[in-house]
Amino acid sequence: MEEQEATLAQIGEHLRRCLVPVEPPPAFVRSLKAELIETARRRQERARRLRRILLVGAAVFGSVASVAGVTTFLLLRRRARAHPPVVAG
Fold first, then answer.
1. Residue-wise pLDDT tens digits, 31-81
2. Buried b / exposed e across 53-89, counting CB within 10 Å, b at 16+?
3. Which tens digits make up the pLDDT trace of 6-26?
4. Statement: the pTM of the whole predicted model exceeds 0.70
5. Which residues, at least 6 apart from 62, have a Cβ–Cβ distance to it below 8 Å?
6. What is the spatial distance between Cα 31 and Cα 38, in angstroms, rounded to a whole number?
7. Diameter of the chain measured on Cα atoms
8. CA torsion, ordered 68, 70, 72, 73, to nearest 10 deg
9. Nearest C-alpha neighbor of 64 from the set 56, 52, 53
């Protein structure tokens, strides 16, 4: 086990000496930044559109429910007036 650790440590040290940090070209950095910003903007726009659709859908549903409730109330009231309950007594 110690032998393997020593070998791995030697390999690690060898890699540290051989490998040098590399800076990406400025054009790549600018391109990546522009891509990330555009992706974030599209994501926000999609979320904004979805919220708008949900809000309009909820408003339409609420309006339809209100109209249905008023219509039901008026129909029931008309029926009650046309057929008054018979009172025994």
1. 999 999 999 999 999 999 999 999 999 999 999 999 999 999 999 999 888
2. eeeeeeeeeeeeeeeeeeeeeeeeeeeeeeeeeeeee
3. 899 999 999 999 998 899 999
4. no
5. none
6. 11
7. 109
8. 160
9. 56
